[in-house]
């Protein structure tokens, strides 16, 4: 089986900044990627996240992080069109991870986490996720980041609905070179990529 993406070498990657914020908004659309999340689910307490789903609260919270110059994630472009997103920041920036019983820290290393990804509907199932992860690895290398950690799913059914794939599929992380470092959750292992 050929795992090579038809997008190999054709994608560009940029960290989200105030200058490309409008591209992020374009990619996420009216639904904020999914249910007005705006990639704030892992960053907020549950009550604050739910409250932020109305009146653009989560969108504003993400914009505030970007305007403050905080690392939030990486945008992927194909022919100058934003087609994918990967949340990527120091693990401690993601409250849900830091408070997780299943994905507890396994050591005291300085880790950057990937808690979620989003790919525009028309670009799914074409190998974009693997290329996105490779782009994040390349970006991390240039920034001197040593450990990338993620918590993808190993589907228990043949076809996983898109709405359940936001945490990423293990096979994509495996193809990008990540290895399992913790199996506390059988279907949501912790994986790492060491640079």
Summary tags:
single chain; 195 residues; alpha+beta; Aminopeptidase; 5-stranded mixed sheet; 4-stranded antiparallel sheet; globular
Can you name the CATH architecture?
3-Layer(aba) Sandwich
The unreliable regions are: none
Query: Superfamily at the CATH H level?
Result: Gcn5-related N-acetyltransferase (GNAT)
* Largest beta-sheet details: 5 strands, mixed
Q: What best-fitting shape do the alpha-carbon axes yield? A: globular
Total individual domains: 1
Annotated CATH topology: Aminopeptidase
CATH domain class: Alpha Beta
Strand order within the widest beta sheet: 4-5-7-9-8
* Rg from Cα: 16 Å
Account of the protein in words:
The protein is an alpha+beta fold and 195 residues long. The protein has one domain (11-194): Aminopeptidase (3-Layer(aba) Sandwich). The protein contains 6 helices and 9 strands, in the order βαααβββαββαβαββ.
Fold blueprint:
Layout: E1 11-15, H1 21-28, H2 46-52, H3 57-67, E2 73-78, E3 81-87, E4 89-90, H4 95-98, E5 112-114, E6 117-119, H5 128-143, E7 147-150, H6 170-175, E8 179-182, E9 190-194
Parallel strand pairs: 5-7
Antiparallel strand pairs: 1-2, 2-3, 3-6, 4-5, 7-9, 8-9
């Amino acid at each position: 089986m050929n795992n090579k993406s038809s997008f190999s070498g054709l994608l560009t990657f940029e960290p989200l900044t105030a200058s490309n914020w409008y591209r992020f908004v374009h990619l996420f659309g009216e639904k904020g990627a999914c249910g007005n999340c705006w990639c704030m689910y892992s960053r907020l307490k549950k009550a604050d996240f739910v409250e932020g789903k109305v009146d653009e609260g989560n969108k504003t919270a993400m914009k505030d992080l970007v305007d403050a110059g905080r690392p939030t994630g990486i945008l992927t472009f194909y022919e100058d069109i934003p087609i994918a997103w990967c949340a990527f920041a120091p693990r401690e920036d993601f409250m849900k991870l830091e408070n997780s019983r299943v994905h507890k820290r396994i050591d005291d290393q300085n880790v950057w986490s990937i808690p979620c990804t989003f790919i525009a509907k028309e670009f799914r199932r074409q190998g974009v996720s693997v290329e996105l992860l490779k782009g994040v690895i390349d970006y991390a290398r240039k920034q001197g980041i040593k450990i990338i950690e993620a918590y993808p799913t190993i589907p228990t059914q043949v076809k996983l609905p898109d709405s359940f794939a936001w945490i990423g599929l293990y096979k994509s992380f495996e193809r990008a070179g990540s290895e399992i470092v913790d199996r506390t959750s059988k279907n949501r292992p912790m994986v790492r990529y060491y640079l």
